[in-house]
Amino acid sequence: MAKTSATHQAIEAVFRDEYGKVSASLIRILRDFDAAEESIQEAFAVALVRWPVDGVPDNPAAWITTTARRKGIDVARRDQARNRKYILVASSQSEEDEFTMLEGMNDSRLHDDRLRLIFTCCHPALNVEARVALTLSTLGGLTTPEISQAFLVPEATMAQRLVRAKRKIKDAGIPYRVPDDSILPDRLDGVLAVIYLIFNEGYSASGGDDVIRRDLSTEAIRLGSVLAELMPDDPEVLGLLALMLLQDSRRDARQSADGLQVLLEDQHRSTWDHEQIKQGVALIDRALEMGRPGRYQVQAAISALHSQAATAGNTDWTQIAALYEALSQLQPSPVVELNRAVAVAMARSIIDGLLAMDRPDVAEPLRDYRWYHSARADLLRRLGQSLESRAAYQRALELTTNTSEIRFLESRLAEVS
After folding, report:
1. CA 151, CA 254: separation in Å to the nearest integer?
2. For the range 308-314, what are the long-range contacts, defined as Cβ-Cβ under 8 Å and sequence gap of 24 or more?
3. CA angle at 382 for the pair 377 and 384, rounded to the nearest 5°
4. Can you tell me whether residue 206 is helix, strand or coil?
5. Which of 55, 296, 355, 372 has its CA 20 to 30 A from that of 182?
6. Average pLDDT over residues 77-106
């Protein structure tokens, strides 16, 4: 029983850590998103049967890839799909080459299947929402509920969006490759959005027991590093990488030993990764020197101010509020206005912050956004308005599925009650 449990944990770890790599490889081999997904699911089902008996293989990801490839070819044979697509699948790499492929994979933009997959999913033939959603699904392994939470849309809507995106790629024959240098900059915005949403799901997990999903944030930073190597003179690429490094530097302080979420002002700053902060600050300084400010650079500058404050009380909230004002010009959105309202509350007064937060153009679009209600509840708590604070915390609880966040909100709700 113990061996079976350990094996199941190993399979879950492979799925969590290697899904993007296996998915990208299978999509390249099978030339079909749905076929790759089905083959991977079947391969994991086989692993659940085989690994408890045979043991976990030395290279689990390569084992899953090879098994999924066989499944894909078997399906093609059963369907008598003896067309060019089947020939391509059957004659791609040999089984031995495919098994050892993952061991030799490097971060080169020419050979990284995951990077190719991002650019395929971010093709201009797809709308922006579909690009991001499809990449989160196929590369990050996020579920449809997790992606719908990131987009603030119903789960059914997101499921339909994913189906349409896959069909569009298939019907339009969208190529699986990194674009030529001449068109690469035009395709960059969608790629940056994809990477940052993957990072955000890792940084603040929408579900599960932990505040963070380290596998996703680590993958996003890795992809951001590859892009920075690919486009070292693009300030927004550097700005995004800086932003992720600065935010990720605080991950070990964001959850207490008993699993509760820890807010920024209460974190032990000695546990922050100061080498990572140094790297992030150097990147944002370099990006801003280029004189072409963008939304990721501004957000990185905000994060740098937080990271460089010796204590929470030393945070330069006035400058942060000004940067959020600049960000609202570059990227107008209710979420940006929510963050600006919090900064105004800290820089000027809580009343001013609440007034900004309660504006209809902010409150209405964010009525089902859990962080809106938790932020509002916190400001009301600071004012001593217990009744309104309780109602806001309760609404945030109704919208939260992450176990750690639920426990934190319950503790705050008990405090104001």
Report:
1. 23
2. 308/277, 308/281, 310/269, 311/269, 312/264, 312/265, 312/266
3. 95
4. coil
5. 296
6. 48
Q: Decide which of 215 and 236 is more confident.
A: 236
Measured distance CA(227)–CA(186) in Å, rounded? 14
Provide the percentage of residues in the chain whose pLDDT is more than 70.
86
Alpha-carbon distance values, 200 to 111, 151, 197 (Å):
26, 12, 5
For residue 416, what pLDDT is reported? Answer: 86
Question: Average model confidence (pLDDT) for the chain?
Answer: 83
Bridge partners of residue 255, in order along the sequence: 261
Tell me if 358 sits within 8 A of 342, measured CB to CB. Answer: no
What is the reported pLDDT for 111? 44
Q: Which long-range contacts (CB under 8 A, 24 or more apart) does 6-15 make?
A: 7/51, 7/52, 7/56, 8/48, 8/52, 10/51, 10/56, 10/60, 11/44, 11/47, 11/48, 11/51, 11/60, 14/47, 14/60, 14/61, 14/64, 15/44, 15/141
Short-list 85, 68, 83, 77, CA closest to 23: 68
Amino acid at 7: T
- DSSP single-letter state for residue 378: H
Task: With beta carbons less than 8 A apart as the criterion, state whether 90 and 130 touch.
Answer: no
Instruction: Give the residue-averaged pLDDT of 316-338.
Output: 95
